[in-house]
Design brief:
The complex is a heterodimer of chains A (334) and B (325). Chain A is α/β, with parallel strands linked by helices and 334 residues long. Chain A has two domains: 127 residues, Response regulator (Rossmann fold), CATH 3.40.50; 167 residues, 3-Layer(aba) Sandwich (Rossmann fold), CATH 3.40.50.2300. Chain A has a six-stranded parallel beta sheet with strand order 2-1-3-4-5-11, sandwiched between helices. Chain A is globular, with a radius of gyration of 20 Å. Chain B is an all-alpha fold. Chain B has one domain. Chain B has 13 helices and two strands, in the order H-H-H-H-H-H-H-H-H-H-H-H-E-E-H. In chain B, helix 1 packs across helix 12 and helix 7 runs antiparallel to helix 12. Chain B is globular and about 70 Å long. The N and C termini of chain B lie far apart (67 Å). The chains are: A alpha/beta (334), B mainly alpha (325).
């Protein structure tokens, strides 16, 4: 009964708010799902922060299949939502199409890439390789078996970009370190298959890995679980995942999707579009998570090394090679 | 390739094949009785949610498994009522169950725990721990240094959860029940020629319901295994197509219990290889991981096309039974 009341209430609220004069922003989550404890959840947190601070409301949808991308974009644009914020690289091409038909609506995409950016589209990219470099250094300092692991989601350039930075960081600490890398799959289910994440983690542990970095959305939950069960360390991604298994997650590579979403929503209709924003270490767009859950695991030596590398990268003295530069990685083969 | 690596891949095969085997045997009972069931996926998913949720709430994994079986039985009952009592289309009913489970599980989990459609992590007695057989080694490093026989014993035979051993026991049990008991004979007959069974004065409806309920129990165990043994929580869509691979295994096994075991182990092995080796070299040719993942389906199509023997489903499968008037 209460459930039906809630549903009715929600639809009534939607119907009422549709008549509001001020344009609401909209947020479209990628296939990993809104509560993936990682990438999409970070976007949700940013939107929630905006809503709490401004008292505004926003529309949102969790995509269930590939086919819904264009439909969802059109629905929001048609309903007058502005700006429409989307997460995940896969929606970018659909957005390019839709943006042409709604020149007055502003579109934002996180992680996407387009050869030509339409005037009403803003792309936001993160220097994930820089953040991954730092956690790679920490992994190499924490390992006792001289072997670290990387588990990616889909085998796509974006994820290799993560892995590449991680490998470079690990090799910077110890040039002879052994890096085991695996991708979960090639279909969108790769973002949400914790069982397979577990199996991959077990396979890497049996190959000697004792610190595993998971850049795999919801699949990473399984990796972190298995790592905690088997008594080795793991590294979370996107959101701060240190609390998931307190004292067993070495750190998390933060990707401040929440900040990007918050900024886009705050700018509202006045959002600057037609280009690409790149957020790196210098803008606090990426970073490493330090809190009470991993304090016992992080040594003073690690903190010092990470801080030094961070300063060097920001100053431009240390160049972390991006996988995108020539679609290959100097530190690891995928 | 090292000996230990092979053992580790086989160990992973056992873990990955178990949910397939349980779901495959579930489908076997149902389809042998003439009720096609493509809702295995949905039933496993519902069982995964309820087993994890109840295990978390009570702290007892066995109560969780019971709840999972209960949820799966409820969906089985819907399937039975729709396709046996009301003589509806069995495929459509199965699809409906899959959709129902896919949506409802997330909705219920969200309403219950408010953690975005997942359940909290389980620990201690709320999940199945690996069983260590007497004398077996548990630490990876000790196993690596042990002799080959000890490696096989410690890595491959010991260290699985109780559900894995249970599912292996179910294979001979299913064979015995289907081919050596009166119930099994009648169950197979009702899938081949229900009119003959009816003429003999045996209730077709009751037999088919019994088969569908057994299917529900086995799917329930499979779902509970996913959420409380392989993983320590329910995550949305966590079955990730395993119900459909189990169906493929069932066809591959031509609806026979022992063959189902081999088919599931083969499909599990393919998954384990795909997990362990991203690309696989055989005689200088590199086989991409995508091919390994697609192989179960390719093999099934090959079987269905009649290249390797012939897969003939139970004759009355998919047909609702209408008594002659």
């Amino acid at each position: 009964m209460s459930l039906i009341q809630k549903l009715l209430g929600a639809s009534a609220a939607l119907a009422l708010s549709a008549g509001a004069a001020l344009a609401e922003p909209a947020l479209i989550y990628d296939l990993g799902g809104k509560f993936d404890k990682s990438f999409n959840e970070a976007a949700f947190n940013g939107a929630e922060r905006w809503a709490k601070e401004t008292g505004g409301t926003y529309r949102e949808i969790e995509l269930q299949s590939e086919a819904q991308r264009e439909q969802a974009l059109r629905r929001f644009a048609e309903a007058g939502a502005n700006p429409v914020v989307t997460t995940g690289f896969a929606i970018a091409s659909a957005m390019e199409e839709v943006a042409k038909d709604y020149p007055d609506t502003k579109f934002v995409n996180i992680d996407g890439w387009l050869p030509e950016i339409p005037a009403n589209v803003q792309l936001i990219a993160f220097q994930e390789h820089q953040g991954s470099y730092l956690v790679g250094m920490m992994a190499a300092m924490a390992t006792k078996t001289n072997t670290v692991g990387f588990i990616g989601g889909m085998g796509v350039p974006l994820i290799r970009h993560f892995g590449c930075g991680f490998a470079q960081g690990a090799k910077a600490v110890n040039a002879d370190i052994n890096i085991v890398a695996n991708m979960t799959g090639t279909t969108p289910t790769a973002w949400n298959d914790p069982v397979k994440g577990s199996e991959l983690a077990k396979a890497q542990i049996s190959q000697g890995a004792d610190v595993i970095y998971a850049a795999a959305g919801g699949t990473g939950v399984g990796v972190l679980q298995t790592a905690a069960d088997e008594g080795i360390l793991s590294i979370g991604v996107d959101s701060n995942q240190n609390h998931l298994h307190s004292g067993k997650v070495l750190t998390s590579m933060l990707k401040r999707v929440d900040v990007a979403v918050y900024n886009a929503m705050t700018a509202g209709e006045g959002l600057e579009t037609g280009g690409m924003t790149v957020l790196g270490l210098a803008d606090d767009g990426v970073g490493v998570a330090m809190d009470e859950h991993n304090a016992a695991l992080v040594t003073a030596e690690m903190t010092a090394a990470v801080e030094a590398a961070r300063a060097q990268i920001i100053a431009g003295d240390l160049n972390v090679v991006s996988y995108y530069e020539n679609d290959s990685c100097p530190a690891i083969q995928f | 390739m090292e000996f230990l690596t092979i053992i580790q891949v086989l160990d992973s095969t056992m873990r990955l094949a178990t949910p397939l085997l349980l779901a495959c045997l579930a489908g076997l009972y149902s389809e042998r009785a003439g009720i096609f069931d493509i809702g295995l996926e949905g039933k496993m998913l519902a069982a995964a949610l309820f087993s994890a949720a109840v295990a978390f709430a009570t702290g007892n994994v066995w109560l969780g498994m019971l709840a999972g079986i209960g949820a799966s039985l409820a969906l089985s009952l819907i399937h039975g009522v729709a396709s046996i009592t009301f003589r509806g289309n069995q495929l459509i009913s199965g699809v409906a169950i899959n959709f129902l489970a896919s949506g409802l599980t997330v909705l219920i989990a969200q309403d219950w725990f408010a953690q975005g459609g997942r359940t909290p992590s389980l620990s201690g007695a709320a999940r199945f721990e690996p069983v260590t057989l007497p004398g077996a080694l548990t630490r990876v490093r000790d196993i690596a240094e042990a002799g080959p026989v000890m490696q096989i014993y410690s890595e491959l035979i010991s260290g699985h959860t109780i559900v894995v051993y249970l599912s292996l026991l179910l294979v001979p049990l299913t064979w015995w029940a289907l081919f050596r008991t009166r119930f099994g004979l009648r169950l197979r007959a009702v899938g081949e020629n229900p009119a003959a069974v009816d003429t003999a004065g045996i209730s077709v409806v009751r037999l088919r319901f019994a088969a569908v309920m057994i299917c529900g129990i086995l799917c329930g165990i499979a779902g509970a295994y996913l959420a409380t043994a392989l993983q320590a929580q329910f995550v949305k869509e966590m079955t990730a197509g395993r119900g459909f691979i189990a169906l493929a295994a069932l066809i591959f096994a031509k609806w026979r219990p022992w063959h189902a075991l081999w088919a599931c182990l083969l499909f599990g092995l393919l998954q384990a290889i795909a997990v362990r080796f991203q690309s696989f070299d055989i005689a200088g040719v590199t086989i991409p991981v995508q091919f390994m993942e697609a192989l179960p389906y390719i093999l099934t199509v090959v079987i269905l096309a009649g290249f390797v023997g012939k897969a003939i489903p139970p004759r009355a499968g998919g047909e609702p039974y209408v008594k002659e008037r």
